[in-house]
Amino acid sequence: MEISTRCTAACRYCPRTLYASRWQDRLLPKALFARLMPVFKKTALVHLQGWGEPLLHPDFMTMVRMVKAAGCRVGTTTNGMLLTEDLCRRMIEAEMDVLAFSLAGIDAANDRIRLGTSLDRVLAAIATLDRLKRQCGSERPAIHIAYLLLRSRLDDCALLPRFFASLGVEQVVVSTLDLVAGRECVAEALVPADEAEYAALRRRLDAMVAAGRDLGLPIHVWLAAPQGAHGTTDDSEPWPPPNPAGSGCTEHIERAAVVAADGGVSPCVYTHLPVCADVCHWIDGRETAHVPLVFGNIGRQSFAAIWRSREYRTFRKAHAGGQPPRPCRTCVRLRMR
To answer: 235 in the Ramachandran plot: left (φ > 0), alpha (ψ -120 to 50) or beta?
Structure first.
């Protein structure tokens, strides 16, 4: 659930920053959110996150309580700048399940990359939440880290496990820059040029995961295979199954969906950018037009009707058959291992 496309930060790599003149700031109306209550009752997890900062929504805690009342888990991902001690207490009282903090560094580089944020304030917020949980005897919300690993910060891999294990963090998810929204960010995308580079990067990431395991800290990370390893970005050529080892699309499109702040339903956040004009991004260093995928709007249809529509079923069937349509066929998420 994308409840906000507004943000207090201006991260150098974020589409909101790089598409600033075409960006549309939105907050999901609570009335639209309420239309999904029947769906929440059949859902395992509702994650309040999109292209903006969720804590900017004035009804954030009301939405958390609505999801919990429906009987499913609820989480969010935040930059941490709006997290007060009072809000931490309310999250604990509401039994929110997951609170993830976004970072792109473990030193001053984080603040240079994620303009408008402060690593020190994030660490202080984590410490406050951990202290309050202990005082309340609560295990929730679990503290997670959503860590963006840029190519220029590869040396952080050796430092991340011990750094986060000492903070009461329960899980770290390391992602790479999959949506490259500006030419100036192409060099930061961690997409190997060939199998040799893939193997070298994989060894570093595997060592990080192993170090985390030794410290009792689960670290999850995906790395894209080189272009051509499992597919092609040329639409004229046959498209083999993207990952014979068995992951397919990492966004779980067969059992998950994204509802954007305007009510639109899409298979993932990458296919629904809140922009008012055409934009381009870079895939394997090549400029590519952004192609949105929106199968309906909960303001006009029920979620069930959208999910079961012929267009959406055809889309999922194409993926399951190893023939993903555009824009998915050029997406690096299909090459993740």
So the answer is: alpha
In sequence order, the 6+-apart residues with CB closer than 8 A to the CB of 84 are: none
Sequence letter at residue 60? F
Dump pLDDT digits (tens) for 30-49: 999 999 999 999 999 999 99
Q: What is the mean pLDDT of residues 220-244?
A: 58
C-alpha 125, offset from chain centre: 21
Cα separation, 232 vs 178, in Å, equals 16
